Amino acid sequence: MQQLLDRDSHEVPVTLRVHAAADLGDADLSVDRYLSREFHDLEVERLWGRAWQLACREEDIPEVGDTTIYDIADRSLLIVREAPERIRAYHNACLHRGRQLRSEPGWNAELRCPFHGFTWRLDGSLKEIPCDWDFPHVDPAAFALPEALVATWGGWVFINMDPAAAPFEDFMGTFAEHFPWRQEDLTKGVHVAKVLRANWKVALEAFIESYHVIATHPQLLVSLGDANTQYDVFDEQPRWNRMITAMGTPSPHLPYEVSEQDIMDDLMEQFMGPGVTFPLAEGKTAREMMGDLIRGQVGGVTGEPCEVSDSEAFDAIEYYLFPNFVPWGGYSRINYRFRPYGNDPDMCIMDVMLLAPFNKAEGRPPAPPVHWLGPDDEWTDAPELGLLAKVFVQDTFNIPRVQRGLKATVKPGVTLAHYQESRIRHYHQELDRWLQVELAPSTNGHSG
Question: Whole-prediction pTM value?
Protein backbone atom coordinates (compact mmCIF):
# COMPACT_ATOMS: atom_id res chain seq x y z
CA MET A 1 0.00 0.00 0.00
CA GLN A 2 2.76 2.43 0.91
CA GLN A 3 4.53 1.72 -2.39
CA LEU A 4 1.36 2.69 -4.26
CA LEU A 5 1.15 5.90 -2.25
CA ASP A 6 4.77 6.65 -3.26
CA ARG A 7 3.55 6.72 -6.88
CA ASP A 8 0.36 8.74 -6.31
CA SER A 9 -0.19 11.55 -8.82
CA HIS A 10 -1.16 14.02 -6.05
CA GLU A 11 0.01 14.79 -2.54
CA VAL A 12 -1.10 12.15 -0.06
CA PRO A 13 -2.38 13.15 3.42
CA VAL A 14 0.10 12.53 6.21
CA THR A 15 -2.34 10.26 8.02
CA LEU A 16 -2.24 7.70 5.19
CA ARG A 17 1.51 7.45 5.65
CA VAL A 18 1.07 6.19 9.20
CA HIS A 19 1.29 2.41 9.59
CA ALA A 20 0.69 0.92 13.03
CA ALA A 21 0.68 -2.84 13.54
CA ALA A 22 0.42 -4.01 17.14
CA ASP A 23 1.02 -7.50 18.47
CA LEU A 24 -2.33 -8.37 20.06
CA GLY A 25 -1.68 -12.05 20.64
CA ASP A 26 -3.31 -15.04 18.99
CA ALA A 27 -5.78 -16.42 21.57
CA ASP A 28 -9.09 -17.67 20.23
CA LEU A 29 -12.24 -15.61 20.85
CA SER A 30 -14.92 -17.38 22.86
CA VAL A 31 -17.92 -18.47 20.81
CA ASP A 32 -20.10 -17.48 23.78
CA ARG A 33 -19.66 -13.80 23.04
CA TYR A 34 -21.66 -14.16 19.83
CA LEU A 35 -24.38 -16.43 21.20
CA SER A 36 -25.07 -16.24 24.91
CA ARG A 37 -27.86 -14.22 26.46
CA GLU A 38 -25.61 -13.48 29.43
CA PHE A 39 -22.95 -11.86 27.24
CA HIS A 40 -25.60 -9.89 25.34
CA ASP A 41 -27.10 -8.62 28.60
CA LEU A 42 -23.65 -7.47 29.72
CA GLU A 43 -23.30 -5.52 26.46
CA VAL A 44 -26.67 -3.86 26.95
CA GLU A 45 -25.77 -2.80 30.49
CA ARG A 46 -22.08 -2.01 30.30
CA LEU A 47 -21.51 -1.10 26.64
CA TRP A 48 -24.67 0.32 25.06
CA GLY A 49 -25.70 1.91 28.35
CA ARG A 50 -22.34 3.65 28.84
CA ALA A 51 -20.44 4.17 25.57
CA TRP A 52 -20.69 6.97 23.02
CA GLN A 53 -22.44 5.62 19.92
CA LEU A 54 -23.65 6.91 16.58
CA ALA A 55 -27.32 7.97 16.61
CA CYS A 56 -28.00 9.95 13.38
CA ARG A 57 -26.83 12.71 11.04
CA GLU A 58 -27.48 16.37 11.74
CA GLU A 59 -29.38 16.69 8.47
CA ASP A 60 -31.84 14.06 9.74
CA ILE A 61 -33.15 16.83 12.03
CA PRO A 62 -32.33 20.08 10.19
CA GLU A 63 -35.12 22.31 11.58
CA VAL A 64 -36.15 23.21 15.11
CA GLY A 65 -38.77 20.66 16.17
CA ASP A 66 -37.45 17.88 13.93
CA THR A 67 -37.11 14.56 15.75
CA THR A 68 -35.74 11.11 15.02
CA ILE A 69 -35.42 7.93 17.07
CA TYR A 70 -32.41 5.86 18.02
CA ASP A 71 -33.21 2.40 19.37
CA ILE A 72 -30.64 0.11 20.95
CA ALA A 73 -31.80 -3.20 22.47
CA ASP A 74 -34.82 -2.28 24.64
CA ARG A 75 -33.72 1.32 25.03
CA SER A 76 -35.02 4.17 22.91
CA LEU A 77 -33.91 7.78 22.60
CA LEU A 78 -35.76 10.66 21.01
CA ILE A 79 -33.25 12.93 19.24
CA VAL A 80 -34.64 16.49 19.00
CA ARG A 81 -33.46 19.70 17.32
CA GLU A 82 -34.37 21.98 20.23
CA ALA A 83 -32.73 25.12 18.83
CA PRO A 84 -30.84 25.95 15.63
CA GLU A 85 -27.51 25.02 17.25
CA ARG A 86 -28.69 22.64 19.98
CA ILE A 87 -29.65 18.96 19.79
CA ARG A 88 -31.04 17.04 22.75
CA ALA A 89 -31.63 13.33 23.33
CA TYR A 90 -34.51 12.35 25.62
CA HIS A 91 -35.30 8.90 26.91
CA ASN A 92 -38.28 8.02 24.73
CA ALA A 93 -40.87 7.38 27.44
CA CYS A 94 -43.65 9.43 28.96
CA LEU A 95 -43.11 10.12 32.66
CA HIS A 96 -46.78 9.39 33.35
CA ARG A 97 -47.27 5.72 32.45
CA GLY A 98 -44.32 5.02 30.21
CA ARG A 99 -45.80 5.18 26.71
CA GLN A 100 -43.23 5.94 23.98
CA LEU A 101 -43.46 9.61 23.19
CA ARG A 102 -42.67 8.99 19.53
CA SER A 103 -42.45 5.86 17.40
CA GLU A 104 -41.70 7.60 14.07
CA PRO A 105 -39.44 10.51 13.06
CA GLY A 106 -41.03 13.83 12.17
CA TRP A 107 -41.58 17.47 13.12
CA ASN A 108 -43.17 18.41 16.45
CA ALA A 109 -43.84 21.81 18.00
CA GLU A 110 -43.93 20.06 21.38
CA LEU A 111 -43.56 16.55 22.75
CA ARG A 112 -47.07 15.36 23.60
CA CYS A 113 -47.79 11.81 24.73
CA PRO A 114 -50.50 10.28 22.50
CA PHE A 115 -51.91 8.23 25.41
CA HIS A 116 -53.09 10.86 27.95
CA GLY A 117 -51.70 14.12 26.59
CA PHE A 118 -48.87 14.86 29.03
CA THR A 119 -46.84 17.48 27.13
CA TRP A 120 -43.24 18.72 27.28
CA ARG A 121 -41.56 21.62 25.51
CA LEU A 122 -38.69 20.93 23.12
CA ASP A 123 -36.24 21.84 25.89
CA GLY A 124 -37.65 18.97 27.97
CA SER A 125 -39.49 21.10 30.54
CA LEU A 126 -43.03 20.11 31.48
CA LYS A 127 -45.68 22.17 29.70
CA GLU A 128 -49.02 20.58 30.53
CA ILE A 129 -50.72 17.82 32.51
CA PRO A 130 -54.38 17.30 31.61
CA CYS A 131 -56.47 17.59 34.79
CA ASP A 132 -53.41 18.79 36.65
CA TRP A 133 -55.57 19.22 39.76
CA ASP A 134 -55.37 15.42 40.11
CA PHE A 135 -51.56 15.46 40.28
CA PRO A 136 -50.77 17.73 43.23
CA HIS A 137 -47.87 15.42 44.05
CA VAL A 138 -46.08 16.19 40.76
CA ASP A 139 -43.57 19.03 40.93
CA PRO A 140 -43.43 20.50 37.40
CA ALA A 141 -39.83 21.68 37.92
CA ALA A 142 -38.74 18.11 38.72
CA PHE A 143 -40.82 16.50 35.96
CA ALA A 144 -38.54 17.38 33.03
CA LEU A 145 -37.70 14.66 30.50
CA PRO A 146 -34.54 12.75 31.45
CA GLU A 147 -31.74 13.31 28.94
CA ALA A 148 -28.80 11.45 27.48
CA LEU A 149 -25.54 13.20 26.58
CA VAL A 150 -25.15 14.48 23.01
CA ALA A 151 -22.07 15.29 20.94
CA THR A 152 -21.57 16.12 17.28
CA TRP A 153 -18.63 15.56 14.99
CA GLY A 154 -18.36 15.70 11.21
CA GLY A 155 -22.11 16.17 10.81
CA TRP A 156 -22.81 13.04 12.88
CA VAL A 157 -24.74 12.98 16.16
CA PHE A 158 -23.52 10.73 18.99
CA ILE A 159 -25.30 9.92 22.24
CA ASN A 160 -24.32 8.47 25.61
CA MET A 161 -26.82 7.27 28.21
CA ASP A 162 -24.31 7.45 31.07
CA PRO A 163 -24.61 10.88 32.74
CA ALA A 164 -21.11 10.43 34.19
CA ALA A 165 -19.46 9.59 30.86
CA ALA A 166 -16.25 11.30 29.83
CA PRO A 167 -16.59 13.86 26.99
CA PHE A 168 -16.87 12.49 23.47
CA GLU A 169 -13.59 14.17 22.53
CA ASP A 170 -11.81 12.08 25.17
CA PHE A 171 -13.62 8.93 24.08
CA MET A 172 -12.56 9.22 20.42
CA GLY A 173 -8.89 9.86 21.24
CA THR A 174 -6.85 10.73 18.15
CA PHE A 175 -9.52 9.56 15.70
CA ALA A 176 -10.35 13.08 14.50
CA GLU A 177 -6.66 13.87 13.91
CA HIS A 178 -6.35 10.84 11.64
CA PHE A 179 -9.64 11.50 9.80
CA PRO A 180 -9.05 14.83 8.05
CA TRP A 181 -11.94 14.59 5.55
CA ARG A 182 -14.76 17.00 6.39
CA GLN A 183 -17.90 14.90 6.42
CA GLU A 184 -19.86 17.92 7.65
CA ASP A 185 -19.41 19.27 4.11
CA LEU A 186 -21.26 16.24 2.72
CA THR A 187 -24.90 15.26 3.01
CA LYS A 188 -26.72 11.97 3.43
CA GLY A 189 -28.05 10.87 0.06
CA VAL A 190 -28.97 7.25 0.86
CA HIS A 191 -29.86 5.40 4.08
CA VAL A 192 -30.70 1.70 3.92
CA ALA A 193 -31.09 -0.35 7.12
CA LYS A 194 -31.24 -4.14 6.89
CA VAL A 195 -32.20 -6.59 9.62
CA LEU A 196 -29.85 -9.59 9.71
CA ARG A 197 -30.19 -12.93 11.49
CA ALA A 198 -26.89 -12.70 13.31
CA ASN A 199 -25.21 -11.11 16.29
CA TRP A 200 -24.16 -7.52 15.64
CA LYS A 201 -20.48 -8.46 16.03
CA VAL A 202 -20.72 -11.16 13.34
CA ALA A 203 -22.03 -8.54 10.93
CA LEU A 204 -19.47 -5.90 11.91
CA GLU A 205 -16.55 -8.29 11.51
CA ALA A 206 -17.54 -9.14 7.94
CA PHE A 207 -16.92 -5.52 7.00
CA ILE A 208 -13.66 -4.64 8.79
CA GLU A 209 -11.27 -6.99 6.98
CA SER A 210 -10.45 -7.65 3.31
CA TYR A 211 -9.30 -11.21 3.94
CA HIS A 212 -12.69 -12.51 2.78
CA VAL A 213 -12.47 -10.99 -0.71
CA ILE A 214 -10.77 -13.97 -2.37
CA ALA A 215 -13.67 -16.30 -1.52
CA THR A 216 -16.63 -13.93 -1.16
CA HIS A 217 -15.94 -11.36 -3.92
CA PRO A 218 -13.75 -13.13 -6.50
CA GLN A 219 -15.08 -10.83 -9.24
CA LEU A 220 -13.11 -7.96 -7.64
CA LEU A 221 -9.65 -9.56 -7.77
CA VAL A 222 -8.56 -8.01 -11.08
CA SER A 223 -8.69 -4.50 -9.63
CA LEU A 224 -8.51 -4.79 -5.84
CA GLY A 225 -5.35 -5.46 -3.85
CA ASP A 226 -7.02 -7.45 -1.09
CA ALA A 227 -4.01 -9.26 0.41
CA ASN A 228 -1.96 -6.04 0.24
CA THR A 229 -4.38 -4.23 2.56
CA GLN A 230 -2.73 -2.15 5.28
CA TYR A 231 -4.25 -2.71 8.73
CA ASP A 232 -3.62 -0.10 11.39
CA VAL A 233 -4.26 -0.82 15.07
CA PHE A 234 -2.86 1.29 17.85
CA ASP A 235 -2.00 0.01 21.34
CA GLU A 236 -2.52 3.48 22.75
CA GLN A 237 -5.77 4.12 20.84
CA PRO A 238 -8.07 1.22 21.70
CA ARG A 239 -11.28 2.79 20.39
CA TRP A 240 -10.46 3.19 16.72
CA ASN A 241 -8.59 1.40 13.97
CA ARG A 242 -8.29 1.47 10.19
CA MET A 243 -7.59 -0.42 7.01
CA ILE A 244 -6.55 0.84 3.57
CA THR A 245 -7.36 -1.44 0.64
CA ALA A 246 -6.00 -0.29 -2.71
CA MET A 247 -8.24 -0.10 -5.76
CA GLY A 248 -6.86 -0.08 -9.28
CA THR A 249 -4.24 -2.72 -8.56
CA PRO A 250 -4.59 -6.49 -8.92
CA SER A 251 -4.88 -8.99 -6.11
CA PRO A 252 -1.69 -10.92 -5.31
CA HIS A 253 -3.88 -14.03 -5.43
CA LEU A 254 -4.31 -13.81 -9.22
CA PRO A 255 -2.29 -16.54 -10.97
CA TYR A 256 -1.80 -14.41 -14.11
CA GLU A 257 -0.68 -10.93 -15.14
CA VAL A 258 -3.18 -8.20 -15.93
CA SER A 259 -2.57 -4.99 -17.85
CA GLU A 260 -3.47 -1.48 -16.75
CA GLN A 261 -6.21 -1.52 -19.40
CA ASP A 262 -7.56 -4.79 -17.99
CA ILE A 263 -7.74 -3.13 -14.57
CA MET A 264 -9.45 -0.04 -16.00
CA ASP A 265 -12.02 -2.12 -17.87
CA ASP A 266 -12.75 -4.08 -14.72
CA LEU A 267 -13.25 -0.88 -12.72
CA MET A 268 -15.56 0.55 -15.37
CA GLU A 269 -17.68 -2.58 -15.22
CA GLN A 270 -17.90 -2.34 -11.43
CA PHE A 271 -18.73 1.36 -11.34
CA MET A 272 -20.68 1.82 -14.58
CA GLY A 273 -22.06 -1.59 -15.47
CA PRO A 274 -21.31 -4.47 -17.89
CA GLY A 275 -19.72 -3.64 -21.22
CA VAL A 276 -18.53 -0.15 -20.29
CA THR A 277 -14.90 0.54 -21.24
CA PHE A 278 -12.61 3.55 -20.97
CA PRO A 279 -9.40 3.56 -23.04
CA LEU A 280 -6.44 4.66 -20.96
CA ALA A 281 -4.48 7.69 -22.04
CA GLU A 282 -0.84 7.05 -22.92
CA GLY A 283 1.28 6.60 -19.81
CA LYS A 284 -1.71 6.69 -17.44
CA THR A 285 -2.30 4.01 -14.87
CA ALA A 286 -5.79 2.89 -13.95
CA ARG A 287 -5.35 4.46 -10.51
CA GLU A 288 -4.44 7.84 -11.98
CA MET A 289 -7.28 7.75 -14.49
CA MET A 290 -9.87 6.82 -11.89
CA GLY A 291 -8.51 9.59 -9.69
CA ASP A 292 -8.92 12.07 -12.55
CA LEU A 293 -12.48 10.93 -13.26
CA ILE A 294 -13.57 11.17 -9.64
CA ARG A 295 -11.84 14.52 -9.11
CA GLY A 296 -13.72 15.86 -12.13
CA GLN A 297 -17.01 14.42 -10.93
CA VAL A 298 -16.69 15.93 -7.44
CA GLY A 299 -15.68 19.31 -8.83
CA GLY A 300 -18.65 19.25 -11.19
CA VAL A 301 -21.06 18.79 -8.28
CA THR A 302 -19.52 21.24 -5.81
CA GLY A 303 -18.50 23.88 -8.33
CA GLU A 304 -15.05 23.95 -6.75
CA PRO A 305 -11.75 22.39 -7.95
CA CYS A 306 -10.91 19.03 -6.41
CA GLU A 307 -7.25 18.08 -6.02
CA VAL A 308 -7.32 15.08 -3.69
CA SER A 309 -4.88 12.20 -4.13
CA ASP A 310 -5.67 9.12 -6.19
CA SER A 311 -5.87 7.15 -2.96
CA GLU A 312 -8.39 9.52 -1.39
CA ALA A 313 -10.40 9.56 -4.59
CA PHE A 314 -11.23 5.87 -4.69
CA ASP A 315 -9.27 3.55 -2.39
CA ALA A 316 -11.21 1.78 0.36
CA ILE A 317 -9.97 3.78 3.38
CA GLU A 318 -12.14 2.42 6.16
CA TYR A 319 -12.08 3.53 9.79
CA TYR A 320 -13.83 2.02 12.79
CA LEU A 321 -14.77 4.00 15.90
CA PHE A 322 -15.87 1.72 18.71
CA PRO A 323 -18.52 0.46 19.14
CA ASN A 324 -20.78 0.97 16.11
CA PHE A 325 -19.45 3.59 13.64
CA VAL A 326 -17.61 2.57 10.43
CA PRO A 327 -16.91 5.62 8.22
CA TRP A 328 -14.88 5.45 5.01
CA GLY A 329 -12.26 8.14 4.52
CA GLY A 330 -11.23 10.01 1.41
CA TYR A 331 -14.01 10.76 -1.05
CA SER A 332 -15.86 7.50 -0.51
CA ARG A 333 -19.57 7.83 0.15
CA ILE A 334 -19.89 4.78 2.41
CA ASN A 335 -20.60 4.70 6.14
CA TYR A 336 -21.83 1.73 8.20
CA ARG A 337 -23.46 1.33 11.59
CA PHE A 338 -24.04 -1.96 13.44
CA ARG A 339 -26.24 -2.59 16.49
CA PRO A 340 -28.51 -5.25 18.00
CA TYR A 341 -32.04 -5.55 16.62
CA GLY A 342 -34.32 -5.50 19.62
CA ASN A 343 -33.02 -7.26 22.69
CA ASP A 344 -31.94 -10.35 20.75
CA PRO A 345 -28.34 -11.65 20.55
CA ASP A 346 -29.21 -13.49 17.30
CA MET A 347 -30.44 -10.42 15.38
CA CYS A 348 -28.88 -7.13 14.33
CA ILE A 349 -29.30 -4.06 12.14
CA MET A 350 -26.77 -2.99 9.55
CA ASP A 351 -27.19 0.61 8.38
CA VAL A 352 -25.59 1.75 5.13
CA MET A 353 -25.45 5.54 4.77
CA LEU A 354 -24.03 7.05 1.60
CA LEU A 355 -22.85 10.63 1.85
CA ALA A 356 -22.47 12.87 -1.17
CA PRO A 357 -21.07 16.31 -2.01
CA PHE A 358 -23.55 19.08 -2.75
CA ASN A 359 -23.45 22.56 -4.19
CA LYS A 360 -23.39 24.89 -1.20
CA ALA A 361 -24.80 27.74 -3.29
CA GLU A 362 -27.92 25.64 -3.83
CA GLY A 363 -28.20 24.56 -0.19
CA ARG A 364 -28.16 21.18 1.51
CA PRO A 365 -30.88 18.87 0.17
CA PRO A 366 -33.18 17.14 2.68
CA ALA A 367 -32.03 13.77 4.03
CA PRO A 368 -33.92 10.77 2.65
CA PRO A 369 -36.04 8.59 4.91
CA VAL A 370 -34.58 5.27 6.05
CA HIS A 371 -35.32 2.44 3.61
CA TRP A 372 -35.85 -0.62 5.81
CA LEU A 373 -35.11 -4.12 4.56
CA GLY A 374 -36.24 -7.17 6.49
CA PRO A 375 -34.13 -10.30 6.99
CA ASP A 376 -35.65 -11.93 3.90
CA ASP A 377 -35.28 -8.85 1.68
CA GLU A 378 -32.24 -8.41 -0.55
CA TRP A 379 -30.00 -5.37 -0.79
CA THR A 380 -30.96 -5.25 -4.47
CA ASP A 381 -34.46 -4.27 -3.28
CA ALA A 382 -32.84 -0.89 -2.53
CA PRO A 383 -31.90 0.35 -6.03
CA GLU A 384 -30.53 3.57 -4.55
CA LEU A 385 -27.45 1.57 -3.51
CA GLY A 386 -26.53 1.04 -7.15
CA LEU A 387 -23.86 -1.56 -7.88
CA LEU A 388 -22.92 -1.72 -4.18
CA ALA A 389 -26.07 -3.75 -3.56
CA LYS A 390 -24.69 -6.82 -5.33
CA VAL A 391 -21.52 -6.73 -3.24
CA PHE A 392 -23.58 -6.43 -0.03
CA VAL A 393 -25.64 -9.45 -1.13
CA GLN A 394 -22.43 -11.49 -1.28
CA ASP A 395 -21.32 -10.23 2.14
CA THR A 396 -24.58 -10.81 3.96
CA PHE A 397 -25.13 -14.23 2.38
CA ASN A 398 -22.40 -15.41 4.77
CA ILE A 399 -23.54 -13.61 7.91
CA PRO A 400 -26.57 -15.66 9.07
CA ARG A 401 -24.66 -18.81 8.14
CA VAL A 402 -21.82 -17.76 10.43
CA GLN A 403 -24.35 -17.38 13.25
CA ARG A 404 -25.77 -20.84 12.54
CA GLY A 405 -22.29 -22.29 12.28
CA LEU A 406 -21.25 -20.83 15.62
CA LYS A 407 -24.19 -22.62 17.21
CA ALA A 408 -23.25 -25.89 15.53
CA THR A 409 -19.53 -25.86 16.20
CA VAL A 410 -17.96 -28.01 18.93
CA LYS A 411 -14.83 -25.83 18.88
CA PRO A 412 -15.10 -23.37 21.79
CA GLY A 413 -13.29 -20.50 20.12
CA VAL A 414 -12.94 -18.50 16.91
CA THR A 415 -9.41 -18.40 15.46
CA LEU A 416 -8.18 -15.15 13.90
CA ALA A 417 -5.33 -14.27 11.56
CA HIS A 418 -2.52 -12.40 13.28
CA TYR A 419 -2.46 -9.37 10.92
CA GLN A 420 -5.35 -9.43 8.44
CA GLU A 421 -7.94 -9.85 11.20
CA SER A 422 -6.16 -7.69 13.76
CA ARG A 423 -8.93 -5.08 13.70
CA ILE A 424 -11.35 -7.72 14.98
CA ARG A 425 -9.10 -8.67 17.88
CA HIS A 426 -8.43 -4.99 18.59
CA TYR A 427 -12.08 -4.09 19.14
CA HIS A 428 -12.78 -7.29 21.12
CA GLN A 429 -10.06 -6.32 23.56
CA GLU A 430 -11.69 -2.92 23.97
CA LEU A 431 -15.10 -4.60 24.36
CA ASP A 432 -13.70 -6.75 27.16
CA ARG A 433 -12.49 -3.67 28.97
CA TRP A 434 -16.02 -2.29 28.95
CA LEU A 435 -17.62 -5.57 29.97
CA GLN A 436 -14.85 -6.58 32.39
CA VAL A 437 -14.72 -10.13 31.02
CA GLU A 438 -11.95 -12.41 29.76
CA LEU A 439 -11.09 -12.76 26.07
CA ALA A 440 -10.08 -16.43 26.08
CA PRO A 441 -12.64 -19.12 25.19
CA SER A 442 -14.10 -21.51 27.71
CA THR A 443 -12.68 -25.03 27.74
CA ASN A 444 -16.13 -26.46 28.43
CA GLY A 445 -17.82 -25.78 25.13
CA HIS A 446 -20.26 -22.91 24.72
CA SER A 447 -23.73 -21.84 25.66
CA GLY A 448 -26.50 -20.52 23.46
Answer: 0.94
